[in-house]
Amino acid sequence: MRTNVAQLLKESTGSTRRCEVDDTLYLDEIAECIVKGQAELIRTNRGILVRGNFVGMVSLMCSRCLAIFESPLLLRIEEEFLPSIDVNTGIALSLDADDDPGVFVIDGHHVLDLSEALRQYGLIAVPMKPLCQLDCAGLCPQCGVNLNQGTCQCLFRSVDSTKETR
Fold first, then answer.
1. Which of 7, 72, 115, 162 is the 20 to 30 A CA-CA neighbour of 26?
2. How many CB atoms lie within 10 A of CB 75?
3. What is the C-alpha to C-alpha distance for residues 60 and 76, in angstroms, rounded to an integer?
4. CA–CA distance from 24 to each of 32, 33, 55, 88, 97 (Å)?
5. What does the pLDDT read at residue 158?
6. Which one, of 55, 70, 44, 42, lies nearest residue 121 by Cα?
7. How many Cβ atoms from other residues are within 10 Å of residue 15's Cβ?
């Protein structure tokens, strides 16, 4: 997810390059997935604009039945990365973080690293309440049996009515 953009930074505004990504993305301490895709790097008057589409699979826990399942992760990013060092002179550039605290920076060796941008987009793409299937039945509130795998043997009162159900 790292690519050297020194030559692209020396070119005129509008110049482009393509970058293939096939790497492990770490969303947090435990969630990881293999991300594949292609990014287009476009020279802007300030830095490099990255546009890309990426896919991966991530393991999630169903919010109803607590089962672990694989879910596709689709990421479409568009972010501008700004250089920290002028490629021609080697002079450090002043990036005013107060004006734009979320700015992505190209490091001092002119390497653009997509890892953090993809991680942030990945966290946003993961659903807040993931479901293993749209009609997930969840767990029995009485005994905890996964109702997707069968019915339980306990009786419980339904929240919607006063009839006892199985």
1. 7
2. 21
3. 20
4. 7, 6, 11, 33, 29
5. 55
6. 55
7. 15
Single-letter code of the amino acid located at 137: A
Question: What residue has token string 């550039």?
Answer: 93
CA 71 to chain centre: 12
- Please write the tens of the pLDDT for every residue from 99-120: 666 789 998 899 999 999 999 9
What does the buried/exposed string (b/e) look like for 99-122 if buried means 16 or more CB atoms within 10 Å of the residue's CB? eeeeebbbeeebebebeebbbbbb
- Rounded to two decimals, what is the model's pTM? 0.78
Decide: 40 and 51 in contact? Cβ < 8 Å.
yes
Interacting residues of 124 by C-beta distance below 8 A, sequence separation 6+: none
Checking if the pLDDT of 27 tops 90, the result is no
First to last CA, the chain: 52
Cα 65 vs. chain centroid, distance in angstroms? 24
CA 52 – CA 114 distance, rounded (Å): 10
Match 């002028």 to its residue by tokens. Answer: 86
Length of the chain: 166
Q: Would you kindly state where each structural domain of the chain is located, as residue ranges?
A: 2-135, 136-166
